Request: fold
Amino acid sequence: MFYYNAKYTFALPGQAPGAIAGGIIPASAMPAGQLVRRDFRKYPYLQHRLFDPQLYLASIDPDVSAKSVINLASWPWFCPGAVPEYDSDTHHSVKNWKDLHADTLLQSWRNCLPDKPDTIADAAKAAVKAQLQLGCEMIILPGPLTTLATQQYATETEWIDAGLEACKELKVGLPVLATVAISDNVLRGVAPTQNPLLQTITNQLSARGELAGAYILPELASESGYVCTNRDTLLCLLLLIDDLVRGAGKTALVNYVGTFGAVASAAGASVWSSGYYRGQRRLKLADFEDQEGRAMPRYHSVKLAGDVGLQNDIQTAYRQFGDRILIDTKDGRSLIQSLAAGTYPPPEWEYSQSNIAAAGGHYTEVAYRLGQIATQTSDKRIETVQRWLEGAVLWSSNLQRVGITSSSQTELTHQAVWLNAFKAWRAHARL
Amino acid sequence: MYRGSRITAPDGRSTGDDCAVKYYFDPAQDERVDREIRALEGFRHPNLANVIEHGRISVKGESVRFVAWEYIDGEPLDLKIKNGPLLGKTVACIARDVARAIDHIWSKRIVHRDVGPKNMMLRKGDLEAVLIDLGIARHLFESPLTAPGLTWGTYGYLSPEQCRAEPNLTCHSDVFSLGVSLQEALAGRHPTRGDQQILITSPPKTSDLAPSSPAALADAIDLMLSLRAPFRPLPAALVIRFADLAARL
Reply:
């Protein structure tokens, strides 16, 4: 099932389908005082909402990500007591509150992650309380980013147990998920099936009967584009899901892997989440900031399992292959029609800054459709995804054959890696 | 371990209750003993041997640590197995009770690390079992007393995670060791005749070791020996499964 990664406005881009199953609201989207006052009723997809406390962002740089840091620091699990909570009577508007306290929040940000048992307990409890207040359908326990393979996952389990204790104390009846935020630096270069860190993680999570599952997000510290191109990272993700779902009978939700989420759903993930912007598709602490104001439109091809550049490549591809690499979506229809009529580009697909409503709507509809794979039986899901990836590899080579090269706009290198990782998982799981 | 009699009651008199007394002559073990006592003092559980008293006594002028435990009137499982295979019902009862004990200690994030026939007492009547000796148990949030790369436990009963010397074990590890012990009880001999390597690469099927054992019992035990920890059932689930089997067999 596809969930949309909500942003500040909550509104879905373009003509994205209203039937999207749910949404995940990140703590960095807006200050605490503002989010708790938002009306979710206007957004059908947010009737099934999750809130991500994003503790794993504790080390983002306030000089690079000031806006996000101010929003994050307003939540009590980051810098408790640093500034007064937003109060409409006192501050009148969130803007006033931000203007008044931005400097203090930015200054208090560094090293503000709780590290003593009692402060961890308080922080975990605050994160659980916030989600209860927001009416979430599940509780995501806050968890730090795993960046070292040598610490035996001890800090992470301390946070998980603090969160579970808070849920017990608050008599939470909702399913509870542990956050598994893990840097690809610790997943690369070690044979995934033998990776001791991975074994420790699945061992620790599956041993906790109180956990319904895990909310898994890889941090792509070593990637520069929109998608993960590393086999080890992707295979680790699939193995992690498999151990939790097929092994321990738990639930797995995956975020920030773009449409690889559909592959994750074949391995057993019940929900994957994404969105049009780079910051919604993948997580990277080094450049974590809302840059949507400068975004350019991108066309996502389901057949290619990747984006095709709108400046030149899409026309080259159309001349050679017709509309076979395109897919009809509400927002993408005008693009196909203009290519057929020789009037490309239509205004809504013109390659210009911030002209992303149609591209965003198209991507979201594509993701929604891929999300429907989750409704198939397990065997069918696996076969569907295998065929999809094999097709994507073929299309990647077809496009290269006609002179299109991999670029920041056109993604042609990851398809073979995705297929390879998927096949390796199938072989390991004997499925 | 010695059998003794409880030496003090709240009013200072001997109660005369039987107890098992363990003496620790090596001062280097003090921290480990402290941890065992701390771990167990908080527990009152029917399937765990409870600590009655602990302290120091003088032996030939030397101060020696002792721990007095609840005396379990019964026989250790390893001695019982020497007389031959155990009945399916008895094995199901042992599984139910030891799984209950493992579940209880894991709720405090403690792993026994040495579950095996020598540490399981079968009470008279053979329908109740008690897990004893948390001497090398490990609390997840305490710093390890074991050097990195080393592992504790008994050869022939170690889980794959113990063999890899993973420091932060979970209840899954104790479940694996319990599974080996149950196979041994059903077969009347160690499932791999003590070969640890076979256990963690291709553990034998219970039905091959003890063909006459009830299929449902054998299947449940086989799952406990899954090489990937997450594929093993949690102790709480085992309690339900084996309680049902114990009632039906």
The first strand of chain B starts at residue 2 and ends at 5. The mean pLDDT of chain B is 87. Strands of chain B lie at 2-5, 18-24, 51-59, 62-70, 74-76, 110-111, 120-123, 129-131, 138-139.
